[in-house]
Amino acid sequence: MTRPPAPAGDQQGIATIEFVAVVWVFMVVVLGAAQFGLWWHAQHVVLAAAQDAARLAAAEDGTPAAGRARALDLLHAGLGRDAAGATVQVRRDGELASATVTGQLQPLLPIGQGIRLRATAHSFAEHFRPTQASP
Is 94 in contact with 65 (CB distance < 8 Å)? Predict the structure, then answer.
């Protein structure tokens, strides 16, 4: 003897409940992956800005002001509006130039105060040393 099919009323709404349960997990995974990608990009922009600032400050005719200006240009080009609160500190002490760049990345969802970005780079100062004339 076969059992008659269950009435349609027993399963109504199950698909909606399953969709609601699964869509939240899916959205968290998608937004998490997108936020990670944005952080990855922003962190590399900050690192590149610090490296370029240290390189320009370490050049023989370079200055910390030139390095700072270049870092700010790179931050504005790579981070857009998130670069507004970034700070750049560049120093040149005799043989070593260093640059530290810090900033905040705004999250996709308005949760928390943002993701902290920080990078430091060092470069040896360039000095022109003419070759000795051989007799």
Answer: no
Neighbours of 76 (CB within 10 A): 16
Greater confidence, 110 or 126? 126
Burial environment of residue 127 by CB neighbours within 10 A (0 to 12, 13 to 18, 19 or more): exposed
Residue 96 phi, psi (nearest 5) = -135, 135
pLDDT tens for 37-77 read: 999 999 999 999 999 999 999 998 889 999 999 999 999 99
User: How far is the C-alpha of 89 from the C-alpha of 71, rounded, in Å?
Assistant: 10
Is the pTM of the predicted complex or chain greater than 0.70? yes
Nearest CA to 81 out of 132, 133, 42, 27 is that of 42
Which two structure tokens, joined as six digits, stand for 51? 């490296």
Yes or no: say if 111 and 44 are a contact pair by the CB < 8 Å rule: no
CA angle 38, 97, 104 (to 5 degrees): 25
